[in-house]
Amino acid sequence: MKAKDIKKKVMYILGGTVLTEDFFWKNARFIITVFIILVLYISNRYSCIEKKAKIESLQNELKDAKFESLTIAARLTGVSRKLKVEELIRQNGVELQQIKEPVYKIKK
User: Residue 9 and residue 7: Cα distance in Å, rounded?
Assistant: First the structure.
């Protein structure tokens, strides 16, 4: 008997008879409100997932930029050392000499 009752209820819902009942029409506003809230919830969740993926992408890009910045700073530090500058001057044949005395003498 239970199988027949279940079959009747399924046919009742799928056949559309449930839409002609007073229960549905009395609660139509509530059902529509729930449906709208459900749609808004799903769209908000999707939007949050997209934003989270964008944030992760930007964080990875920021890490890469930081490492690149550190690499460039290390190269610049290596190239700008006194001995390296003197070596580059000699290699390129630039006639510059390091002064032996300070430019200003401070007297007491």
Answer: 5
Tell me how far apart the alpha carbons of residues 27 and 36 are, in angstroms, rounded to a whole number. Answer: 14
CB-count burial class (<10 Å; 0-12, 13-18, 19+) for 89? middle
Contact 74, 68 (CB under 8 A): no
Average pLDDT over residues 85-93: 80
Q: Give 12-71 pLDDT, tens digit per residue.
A: 777 777 667 777 778 889 989 999 999 999 999 999 999 999 999 999 999 999 999 999
Domain range list for the chain? 28-92
Token pair in block for residue 55: 């944030």
Query: Measured at the alpha carbon of residue 18, what is the angle toward residues 13 and 24, in degrees to the nearest 5?
Result: 130
Say whether 97 sits in a helix, a strand or coil: coil
Alpha-carbon span 39 to 47, nearest angstrom: 12
